[in-house]
Amino acid sequence: MPMHGDLERIYADVLARNPGEREFHQAVREVLESIGPAVDKHPEYADAKIVERICEPERQIIFRVPWEDDRGAIHINRGFRVEFNSALGPYKGGLRFHPTVLLGTVKFLGFEQVFKNALTGLPIGGGKGGSDFDPKGRSDREVMRFCQSFMTELYRHIGEYTDVPAGDIGVGSREIGYLFGQYKRITNRYESGVLTGKGLNYGGAQVRREATGYGCAFFVEEMLRARGETFDGKDVVVSGSGNVAIYTIEKVHQLGGRVVACSDSSGFVHDPKGIDLELIKDLKEVRRERIGAYAEERGGEATFVTDRSVWEVPCAVALPSATQNEIDEADAAALVRGGCIAVGEGANMPTTPAGARVLLEAGVSFGPGKAANAGGVATSALEMQQNASRDSWSFAHSEERLRDIMIGIHARCFETAEEYGMPGNYVAGANIAAYARVAEAMLALGLV
Ligand code: NDP
Ligand code: 2IT
Questions:
Q1: Catalytic annotation, pick one of 92, 107, 116, 128
Q2: Would the pTM count as exceeding 0.90?
């Protein structure tokens, strides 16, 4: 898509000043390609150089994380926290532990987070962090020592009014527990609101674990409703088998859909009668096994496939919930051939720009991650609210709040796309609505 002239210049500047950070470039480009009409409508934002300021993180922290494994060998990892934008509230966003994590990865995620958090309508700014630490195959004690070392530096940068991390790939409730324990020890403060995604017995909130997946299913239910459809009786493919994937599958099943495939980085399993979610939970949440074990335990019901893409499995709805750039042009074409009418991004930026183009041109309802997966961070904001008031809400109430928030995000994206003459384009709707909210706050706060 051609870019508005001023935005083309800003994008060239982003490329020059952030060399080699391909994922960050991709995330910025996707937003700048959409917001031209909003930039034209609000010349006062351009005068204040709002877009230039949005593309530059407020603060980037990089630190060394030394730790010792169970054999006494020493490892040196790198830790990151990119505090991107605090116009709407404290920096908020997850921590990712994965060997592929580079500064550019954290910047792409932090940039996306600013817009996602704005769409929730809640008072949260955007940030992201993580490390190139690989938790796979590490013992509990090794993970604990790593988390303690990571927090020994991170603690000085975070706080319930400053920056509130949570989980992402490789960081779940086990890691959040170790991180919170170390924060509490160093600061001598039981500051529950400094991290979200905590266990229910030490300040965590009901439905946070389920929130990203449930929220994605609620968002897609709304996209289907807008085209006169429901999940009922539809085959669905979900990639990944981690936190987001598991609770997406759970809610899709509750809404009447049938998830027939899911995956991890070793391949995918195809189970035409429907994925046995209890088995996936046991394999992934308890035993921490590879996905191939699912097919073994299901006998002849399911097959384990390593030489093809999960997107070749025919489905009406696809919910990528693993990682960035997992649906390329060929995958998108396979989805369209297989009868797919809706894609909801549970993961962050799972579709490449060429893949997204194929889906949009084929008339597939396409819910971008910053809208479709915002339920996780929204429920984190509800966890912060409960921590601040020393309260805890019931599961049913929390889920109802989440559902209302997702319906609200869908409406905001849908209506904004209509208002700007791009009906059905949730990418444009999400980017413009989020940009307008952040820009307005930045303008009000002056040149800071
Ligand atoms: P988990 O670590 O719980 O699960 C990640 C899943 O994706 C695993 O099945 C993993 O397989 C797979 N995966 C990760 N990296 C790759 C890769 N490079 N190639 C293939 N498969 C991969 O993470 P989450 O479920 O929390 O996160 C999944 C996605 O959702 C991410 O994009 C994250 O940013 C996004 N997200 C998460 C939110 C949250 O609240 N947790 C909120 C919003 C978005 P394996 O185990 O083999 O590595
Ligand atoms: O990408 C995301 O929105 C998350 N990983 C969740 C962030 C949060 O602060 O709950």
A1: 128
A2: yes
